[in-house]
Design brief:
CATH class: Alpha Beta
Largest sheet: 9 strands, mixed
Helix content: 40-55%
CATH topology: D-Maltodextrin-Binding Protein, domain 2
Strand content: 15-25%
Distance between the termini: 75 Å
Order of helices and strands: HEHEHEHHEEHEHEHEHHEHHH
Number of helices: 13
CATH architecture: 3-Layer(aba) Sandwich
Bound molecules: (2R,3R)-2,3,4-trihydroxybutanoic acid
Number of domains: 1
Number of strands: 9
Radius of gyration: 24 Å
CATH superfamily: Bacterial extracellular solute-binding protein, family 7
Length: 324
């Protein structure tokens, strides 16, 4: 090779290859109500990382926090955001069939709840979302809800009487606390801490994961491990967002959603295992010996009402469900 050609060859190597066309990325925005370091944040970030990896970054998933879940669902419905990971608290106002999962003491434990939601019953309820302008992608998990307040220890249903309790904007939960003699005050999660700080409400109820992640021990003195409601979360997307995915990408989307569910549920289980000790370490008084039967008995009139107003057959199927 003559010198000029060698120089030309070396010169060619020295010139950085012009980058190909900028990678065309499609952005998907996912919002959720809790800190990044929470069971819901872990779900959203796992979905983002997994879907980006599986599609070789043809998609860019942006996870954002918005602690008003009803607002997020409305934004998904009109398409201003693509997806949300939200508790089912406000979802019953959009998809009434979801309310059945909000009935107190319906699920025996997490395995029961996860089995029902991932099985035929849960999938049948997800199938009701499209008629309401939403796509229910997958059930994830908020956890078993526990009662906190700053007035007194709660050991019996009678101790709940007269407490002003913040509930989610959820008719089933509000009915339950009314039956217990409390004064339910529905509000978005975004309003909760100020309401507790100002004494607008005495207490609230949430899973350990939510209480720990949001440091609610700073505004609540007592917790009773009532586990009175299993609170699902659900990944909901705008129909056009999902419709724009080709079949192959839709399969990868679902694969990423399953990865999110796995990470989220693992974090809830870990939080439940460590949460009581952590909250006690932070100074909360935690009542763990709870007479669940007494709370169930106190709710009897409300249970009778839900048999009439919700789908009694599905309630029975849920209670009878067993892992095969
Ligand atoms: O989804 O509003 C609530 O109490 C929810 O449990 C919380 O936002 C986590």
């Amino acid at each position: 090779m003559t010198l000029p050609r060698r120089l030309a060859f070396a010169a060619a190597l020295a010139v950085p290859l012009a980058a190909g066309p900028a990678l065309a990325q499609t952005q998907i925005t996912v919002q959720h109500a809790l800190p990044a370091n929470s069971h819901t944040g872990v779900g959203a970030s796992t979905f983002a990382e997994t879907f980006q990896r599986l599609t070789n970054n043809r998609y860019r998933v942006v996870a954002q926090r918005n602690d008003n879940e009803r607002e997020m669902i409305e934004s998904v419905q009109i398409g201003t955001i693509d997806c949300t990971f939200t508790s089912t608290g406000p979802v019953g106002n959009f998809v009434p069939e979801v309310r059945i999962f909000d009935v107190p003491f319906l699920f025996r434990d997490a395995a029961h709840a996860r089995g029902v939601l991932d099985g035929e019953i849960g999938q049948q309820v997800l199938a009701r979302f499209p008629a309401r302008g939403l796509v229910g992608v997958i059930w994830i998990e908020n956890g078993f809800r526990n009662l906190t307040n700053s007035r007194r220890e709660v050991n019996t249903p009678a101790d709940v009487r007269g407490l002003k309790i913040r509930t989610m904007e959820n008719q089933v939960h509000m009915r339950a606390f009314t039956q217990l003699g409390a004064l339910p005050t529905p509000m978005a999660f975004s309003e909760l801490v100020p309401a507790l700080q100002q004494g607008t409400v005495d207490g609230q109820e949430n899973p350990i994961s939510v209480i720990v992640a949001n440091n609610l021990n700073q505004v609540q003195r007592f917790m009773t491990l009532t586990r009175h409601v299993y609170s699902p979360q659900v990944m909901i997307c705008n129909p056009a967002t999902v419709g724009r995915l080709n079949a192959a990408d839709r399969a990868l989307f679902q694969q990423a959603a399953v990865a999110a569910q796995t990470a989220n549920r693992a974090r809830v289980s870990a939080d439940d295992d460590a949460g009581v000790a952590e909250l006690r370490r932070r100074g909360m008084t935690v009542v763990t010996e709870v007479d669940t039967a007494a709370f169930q008995a106190a709710l009897a009139p409300a249970f009778a009402e839900w048999e009439r107003t919700l789908d009694a057959a599905t309630l029975r199927r849920i209670r009878d469900w067993r892992a095969n």
